[in-house]
Amino acid sequence: MPRGPRLAFQNAFYHVFNRGINKQPIFFKETDYLFFTKKLKDLKSKYDYSLYAYCLMPNHFHLSIQTRKASISKIMSSLTTSYAMYFNRNYEHFGPVFANRFHSILIENDLYFLKLSQYIYLNPVKAGIVKNPIDYRYSSIKEVLGREPLTILDEDIVRLIGETVGSQKAYEEFIFDGAKTDLAEIEKLFEKEPAIFGSNRFRVLAQKKYTRRRSKQNNA
Q: Which of 71, 103, 197, 200 is the most buried (most CB within 10 A)?
């Protein structure tokens, strides 16, 4: 049975997730992470999207992206295809590197983005890799908190987080507070299609659009 169409809006926020095929590792050494993040940065000029958060785990990744005109599918296809070619070449691997279809969660606005960014940055803590999310080397948390210059994230992140020491400290505390809370609600989103994170009104409108697109797909 064919998969349904994605929820696609211009200027939309997405939380994007994908993992290695059969949950196998996709990053083995630092150069792998660096290649992926460089490609992520380079594609911003080609597809005009904003990147607000990322975390690269050994066998999967999480991204927070706002699209413009290019679809999220086009952006992710270019990113994962490029990395798969690099991976296969360097590790003499044959066949697919990533699971067949990446998962995307449509996010309503800044408030819901913040909650998902908390989930993103706590990934290495929940996995037992580090105790402090700031110690994890392959996420954008230091850029967000002003401990490193903005090199990959969009400068508009200051609108979401704030650029004062006080606002960054408040966001850091918000991230740490997530370690004490149950994030099962967010984890359930990765099992849904379409996955939508927002108010009831936003979910209803997005679901209606998804249903119309699926109906057109089935009748084509």
A: 197
Q: What is the 3-state secondary structure (H, E, C) of the chain?
A: CCCCCCCCCCCCEEEEEEEEHHHCCCCCCHHHHHHHHHHHHHHHHHHCCEEEEEEEECCEEEEEEECCCCCHHHHHHHHHHHHHHHHHHHHCCCCCCECCCCEEEEECCHHHHHHHHHHHHHHHHHCCCCCCHHHCCCECHHHHCCCCCCCCCCCCHHHHHCCCHHHHHHHHHHHHHHCCCCCHHHHHHCCCCCEEECCHHHHHHHHHHHHHHHHHHHHC
Q: Which fold has domain 13-198?
A: Alpha-Beta Plaits (3.30.70)
Token output for 109:
């606005």
CA distances for 190 relative to 74, 104, 106, 121, 161, angstroms: 20, 8, 11, 16, 25
In order along its 220 residues, the chain shows pLDDT tens digits of 345 556 666 678 899 999 999 999 999 999 999 999 999 999 999 999 999 999 999 999 999 999 988 989 999 999 999 999 999 999 999 889 998 788 888 887 667 788 888 999 999 999 999 999 999 999 999 998 889 998 999 887 877 777 777 888 898 898 988 887 777 777 777 777 767 877 777 777 777 776 666 666 555 5
